[in-house]
């Protein structure tokens, strides 16, 4: 019996080692497949949108490459620009976009992004999208969430409304092979849930971005940029639509209500 248990233990350990080696090989394969065809700088989209409307709102984008808009084909297709334009249209106010987000940023970079804001800058609403790089770089979830909480707290202390787009579902990245993609999806969804629980008590508006994952799975050619990792302009449009109601609510724009009753024939 002791010999059998020893063989089981050795076989189990060998399986774990083989599994880890498979994941390392798949990670290298994914990095080769994805590459960096988009470079490491998103298009600069900062400007005042619908300037003639006046009564300007200040919109701040913080976080990683999604918040920065890497993959958009034109400036107006970045996430920040799409949110600014739609917020201006729905609010009737001018919206000035300022992007502090940095391609490749982890949650720990939020502190530096806040420190790098212009002196005296006071945003009306900040949109924070971060977490994907924490998952791919295997940052401890508790550390990742703590950095996000620190940033949201600092923004709230400035009197700024905050919208947090939770970590996207990495299980939608079809360029990543299985089982690595499934593990990434599980880890990203876990982080998204932890982000939500942590920032809601701080007064943040939370949008679950994993809800847009099915669109990326069903329409990958349209939703992804050429690297099959970052969103395209169409992908950012979908994400902007998901975030917009929270942004409008944060700045006090009344939202349409729909009656649950139906007219009688």
Question: Would you give an account of this structure?
Answer:
By secondary structure, this protein is an alpha/beta fold. Helices cover 48% and strands 10% of the residues. It has helices at 2-34, 65-68, 79-91, 110-115, 132-136, 141-157, 180-199, 213-218, 220-223, 233-250; strands at 48-49, 57-63, 95-99, 125-129, 161-165, 205-207. It has a six-stranded mixed sheet with strand order 1-3-2-4-5-6, with helices on both faces. Strand 5 (161-165), helix 7 and strand 6 form a beta-alpha-beta unit. Helix 3 crosses helix 10 (233-250) and helix 6 runs parallel beside helix 7 (180-199). The chain is globular, with a radius of gyration of 21 Å.
Gist of the model:
By secondary structure, the protein is an alpha/beta fold. The chain has helices spanning 2-34, 65-68, 79-91, 110-115, 132-136, 141-157, 180-199, 213-218, 220-223, 233-250, and strands at residues 48-49, 57-63, 95-99, 125-129, 161-165, 205-207.
Instruction: Count every beta strand, where a strand is a DSSP E run of 2 or more residues.
Output: 6
Oligomer: single chain
Strand arrangement, largest sheet? Answer: 1-3-2-4-5-6
Mean pLDDT: 84
What string gives the helices and strands in order?
HEEHHEHEHHEHEHHH
Integer-rounded radius of gyration: 21 Å
The percentage of residues in β strands lies in: 5-15%
The main pleated sheet reads as:
6 strands, mixed
State the distance separating the first and last CA atoms.
78 Å
Helix vs. strand class: alpha/beta
Proportion in helices: 40-55%
Shape verdict: globular
The residue ranges in which pLDDT falls below 50 over 5 or more consecutive positions are 1-23, 258-265
Instruction: Work out the helix count.
Output: 10
């Amino acid at each position: 019996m002791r010999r059998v248990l020893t063989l089981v233990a050795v076989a189990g350990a060998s399986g774990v080692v083989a599994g880890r080696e498979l994941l390392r090989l798949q990670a290298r394969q994914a990095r080769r497949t994805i590459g960096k065809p988009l470079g490491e700088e998103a298009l600069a989209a900062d400007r005042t949108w619908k300037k003639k409307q006046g009564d300007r709102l200040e919109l701040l984008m913080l976080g990683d490459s999604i918040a920065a808009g890497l993959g958009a084909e034109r400036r107006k297709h970045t996430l920040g620009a799409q949110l600014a334009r739609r917020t201006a249209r729905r609010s009737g106010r001018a919206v000035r976009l300022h992007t502090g987000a940095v391609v490749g940023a982890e949650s720990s970079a939020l502190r530096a992004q806040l420190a790098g804001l212009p002196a005296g800058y006071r945003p009306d609403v900040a949109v924070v999208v971060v977490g994907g790089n924490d998952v791919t770089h295997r940052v401890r979830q508790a550390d990742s969430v703590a950095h996000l909480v620190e940033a949201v707290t600092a923004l709230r202390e400035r009197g700024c409304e905050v919208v947090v787009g939770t970590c996207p579902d990495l299980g939608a990245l079809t360029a990543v092979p299985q089982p690595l993609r499934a593990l990434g999806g599980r880890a990203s969804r876990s982080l998204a849930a932890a982000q939500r629980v942590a920032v809601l008590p701080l007064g943040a508006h939370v949008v679950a971005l994993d809800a847009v994952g099915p669109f990326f799975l069903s329409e990958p050619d349209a939703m992804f940029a050429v690297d099959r990792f970052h969103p395209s302009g169409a992908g950012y449009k979908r994400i902007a639509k998901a975030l917009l109601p929270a942004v409008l609510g944060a700045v006090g724009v009344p939202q349409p209500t729909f009656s649950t009753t139906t007219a009688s024939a």
